[in-house]
Amino acid sequence: MRFSSRLGPRFEPNAFSSLQAELVSRGVELLNMSDSNPTRHGLSPCGVIGALADARCLAYRPDPRGLESARSALAGRFGGEAASYFLSASTSEAYAWIFKLLCDPGDAVLVPKPGYPLFDSLAGLESVRAVPYRLEYRHPEGWSVDLEDLRLVAKASGAKAVVLINPNNPSGSYIRADERRRIVGLCSELGMAVIADEVFFPYALEAVGGMARLAGEEACLTFALDGLSKLLCLPQLKLGWIRISGPRDQVDEAAARLELIADTYLSAGAPVMNALPSLLPGVDDFVGLVLGRLRSNLSEARTVFGGDGSPYRVLRCDGGWTALLEFPRYQGEESVILGLLEHASVAIQPGYFFDMEREGSLALSLILEPEVFAEGVRRIKAYIDSMGA
Ligand SMILES: Cc1ncc(COP(=O)(O)O)c(C=O)c1O
Question: pTM of the full predicted structure?
Fold first, then answer.
């Protein structure tokens, strides 16, 4: 058979996944310290089942943008008009639609580095090139966009859009006001759109204020993405949304074209769309609960790995669900993650998974139950300390 090259070469399990599979088959219970599936960690809001049990779900009322009642609820909660929202099955799908809308095969979109590897696959599946732009880290100030690099790669690649993840996964950095001004200016100058992924926006941890959503940006064509996966820890419900804003003529043209794409799939399901208006009022309380857990786990990581003269460093974490831990480089990342798996029964993603520039970091998921998180960081420290002993 001849297959599309979109998928790249056939996936072969790497040393980490082979060892993990072998340990699981031997009955070893692994503690996954990078797991970001909230439904495995006791995080789900109340009232979901009741909200889904709605007789209106039995009617099929196709609307390419998604049910009006759901879009109005989003507009009421996040601003804009109901007509500026498009509902999809997930933010991942929303990316795919926007890539189809903006790009021809071979076109480029700019993505942050370090970043979540999902964007490479999403772009690849649309035959689009994901071209990285740099984020740089200074301790203790935190992360910033390398704006010179962004301008250079934007010009060299002729990119159609820049993806801004606000805050980014795994760096946790929000787009600052000065960065936003410069990036939006660059987009207007070069005719690029902004794709702003704001799924982690409400989860501010060490940020000191000044964060703002890009959703609703008027100065350039902007597609802001969000969804229930992170907002209410309900990835299994499959609901994401796009809010379009920008210069009126560009928005009208983009929305008319996006409507054709959305109409081809009609992805969002009636149960979750009907439930949305009664789920959204619970967002503030639920986010508050999740924030409490994220902050407590981050503080635990700082206690365990901090202290005068510690060879570890937890990077500044302005927001999101992940903290990056730099460890003393007695051995490289590959050897550390394999050792942790085999000798401490801990599975964890290394920095290279996210294209970190510096070798020697691990990604800690902050949404784990606090006792589990505390046990995991204790095991990680004990194992790495033992290598330096
Ligand atoms: C920044 C970011 N955006 C989007 C997603 C995917 O969200 P969804 O479940 O809505 O596709 C992820 C997944 O972890 C993510 O990290």
Answer: 0.97
